[in-house]
Amino acid sequence: MRLDVQPWGETMAGLVSAARAAEAAGAGVVWAPELHRSAFVTASALAAGTGREAGGHSRIGIGTGIALAFARSAMLTALAAADLDELSEGRFRLGLGTGVARLNQDWHGVSFDRPLPRLRDTVAIVRAVLAGGDPIVHKGLRSIRVRGWRRPYPPVRPHLPIYLAGVGPAMVALAGEVADGWIAHELCPPTELRERIRPALQSGLARRTAPSAGFDVVAAACCSVDPDPAVARRRAANVVGFYASVRSYADMFGAAGFADVCAAASEALRSGRPADCLGDLIPDAMVDAFTIAGTPAHCAVRILEYDGLADAIKLSPPSYGLPADEVRHAQNRLLELVGSM
Description:
Largest sheet: 10 strands, parallel
Pfam family, one: Bac_luciferase
GO molecular function: monooxygenase activity; oxidoreductase activity, acting on paired donors, with incorporation or reduction of molecular oxygen
CATH superfamily: Luciferase-like domain
Domain Luciferase-like: 11-308
CATH architecture: Alpha-Beta Barrel
Protein name: Alkanesulfonate monooxygenase SsuD/methylene tetrahydromethanopterin reductase-like flavin-dependent oxidoreductase (Luciferase family)
C-alpha cells in the first residue's frame, strides 16, 4: 500500500519544504487541497520543488486533492492540468470534487444544481480538451463548443489520470465509472471503506465503458502522532469537530452513533464558535473512530488496517485550530512515521 501525504505549510516555502521531506521519507504522492490556497498554484509549487533527490531521480506524484470542479470552467481545469503535467514531467494527477452547496453558491457564486451529472460533464469536457481535436463539443448541464482552436503543445503522455472525490454512494460510483481513481474524505475509517465505499466503487466499475489500465483507490486520514496518546487525540479533535458541524457529513457520523455530537457542534457553530475550534465537544471515541491518533506504534498498526482495502492512504497532519509551531511538530512526527514504514 502506498503512503501519500497532504503536506502543510504556514508559507508556500514551508509547504514545499514539507513536500520535499515527504519525498525523502518515501511518500508516493503529495496532494494539494483547495480551501485556504489554490490547489493548482500549490500543485505547481510542489511540482517545481520536488522530483529530484541526491543520487537519483524521484518520481513522487503530484496531485490536487481536491480541486473544486465547478468553481472554474472545465476547459480552464483541463489547461491547468495539462500545464501541470508538463511542469511535473508526467507526475500530475488531477483530483476533482464538487464541494458542498454552500461553498459553491455562497463562496464562488456558481450553481450546485444536480452535482452528479454536472461532475460527469466536467470529466468528459476535461478529457475532450486534453485529447485535442477540432471541434471540441459537449452538450449537457455543462456544455462546451470550441471550433478553430488546437493546443499547439504536445502532451507529456497520452493519458492524464483523473481522480474524483465522493462521500455518497452515487458520487463514489461515478468515480468508478468515469475516473481513474477515487479520493477519500479526510475522515474515512476502514469500516467506511469496507461497508460503503468498496461496494459503490464496484457498481460504478461494472458500468464502465472505457478501458482502464487500473483504478487507484486512495483512502485518507488525519494522522496525529505523539508519544502521549492524549496529546495526539487533542490535536486531532478539532478536525473531527469541524466536519461534525457540517450538515453534509451528518449521516456518516450518525451511522456511527454520534448524531448527538453533530447536533451540539452545529449549535455551537450557529452560536458563533469558530468552525475549527470545536474539538472540546468531540469525545475520544469519536476521534479514535474517524482519525489515526496515538503513539507511533499505534498509528502504524492503524494505517496497516487499510491494506487490502485501498491502494494508497493520504495522510495529513492535524492543523485545525492549532498554532503553527504545533502543526509543524505534528507534521514532523507524521513524516517520521512515513519514513519508518
